[in-house]
Amino acid sequence: MTIVDPYMDESTLTLLATCTKAGMELKLLTARLPADFPLEAKKWAGQYSGITLAVRKTREFHDRFIVLDGTKCWHIGCSLKDAGKKAFMMSEVEDEVNRAALLAEIGKAWDMAPLIV
Fold first, then answer.
1. Measured between alpha carbons, how far is 96 from 28 in angstroms, rounded to an integer?
2. Among candidates 67, 60, 69, which has minimal Cα distance to 93?
3. pTM, 2 dp
4. Strand 72-76 to strand 90-92: parallel, antiparallel, or no bridges (unpaired)?
5. Which of 28, 35, 36, 75 could form a disulfide with 55 if both were Cys (CB 3.0 to 4.6 A apart)?
6. Sheet arrangement for strand 2-4
């Protein structure tokens, strides 16, 4: 699973604890992180053994996205850290051309972004 969200904090990790399973590779791509996020992410990864967690930092995205299995994509109307506070929308990116372009941009940004965790 890849999550692109410019505004992550520790609550993102709390949410992810409910939907991850052993053997899962979890990639987080963000622009801004609280100073203690790398430490919290390392602690989180230690609690959920069997899950590979990597966090990278980029300013290439304004919007938020979730990618599952490298093929299914959703556009999200709010930061995951704010999910549930107000109404928001998730839309699956169904158009094959747009989905392929989005996956390519996320992949390129991931490859170029510095590793935080």
1. 23
2. 67
3. 0.91
4. antiparallel
5. 28
6. 52-57, 25-30, 2-4, 64-68, 72-76, 90-92
Alpha-carbon distance 101 to 75, whole Å? 13
- Three-state DSSP at 55 gives strand
Q: What H or E segment, with its residue span, contains residue 99?
A: helix 96-112
Distance, CA of 82 to CA of 96 (rounded, Å): 29
DSSP letter assigned to residue 114: P
pLDDT, tens digit, 9 for 90 and up, residues 61-99:
999 999 999 999 999 988 888 877 888 899 999 999 999
pLDDT tier, 110 (very low <50, low <70, confident <90, very high otherwise): very high
Question: Tokens 């709390």 correspond to what residue?
Answer: 14
Q: What is the pLDDT of residues 17-30, one digit of tens each?
A: 888 888 999 999 99
CB distance 13 to 86 below 8 Å: no
